[in-house]
Specification:
binds iron/sulfur cluster, 178 residues, single chain
């Protein structure tokens, strides 16, 4: 089966420590991306982690390299946190076709402020998805602008919630393996 989506792990680093984090399980399934040009065979690139936005300069360089490789990739970013001091959110938003943002079980007031900021910056022309852990939904009752999100999903996440769609390959950047 020809797969049209590469789920690309940019980093395994993340500050959250979610109880249901699937990366321990997924690590065994990740294939190291030995040759960057191999990404050209996919149509969609889903950049994930860990938390990609915690290393914004690496993320921006990766996004630019992908556009150089092929201008018409559909590039999606999975994220849930950022460092306000170092991140260039507008720069990231300009370079992607869609964002999946998650409010996890351990969402704090600070996370809610970040969510509001991210939501305000989103382009409604993009394919954006909001994932809400039931705890975050109940504790914070986020003000969701439905014009900005194509899909909003409320999940009681468990370590078994995530599964790899059959049309995706799970790849990891060599730098993330160190
Ligand atoms: S935010 Fe994602 S990568 Fe980080 S601990 Fe939670 S599930 Fe794992």
């Amino acid at each position: 089966m020809i797969k049209d989506t590469a789920r690309l792990v940019m980093t395994l680093k993340c500050n959250r420590g979610c109880t249901y984090c699937p990366n321990g399980f997924y690590k065994k399934l990740m294939t190291k991306l030995e040759n960057f040009d191999d990404l050209d065979k996919y149509n969609n690139i889903c950049i994930t982690g860990g938390e990609p936005l915690l290393d914004c300069s690496t993320l921006l360089a990766l996004l630019d390299d992908l556009r150089l490789l092929r201008g018409n990739f559909k590039i999606y970013l999975y994220a849930s946190d950022y460092d306000p001091v170092t991140v260039s959110l507008p720069g990231v938003m300009q370079r992607i076709n869609g964002l999946t943002w998650t409010l996890h079980e351990n969402t704090s007031f600070d996370d809610m402020q970040k969510f509001n900021h991210v939501q305000a910056l989103l382009s409604s022309a993009n394919d954006n998805r909001l994932v809400l852990h039931t705890k975050a939904m109940l504790q914070w009752a986020p003000r969701i602008n439905y014009l900005k999100w194509n899909r909003v999903t409320v999940l009681q996440m468990t370590e078994h919630t995530c599964s790899l769609p059959p049309n995706e390959d799970l790849l990891i950047m060599p730098e993330a393996c160190k």
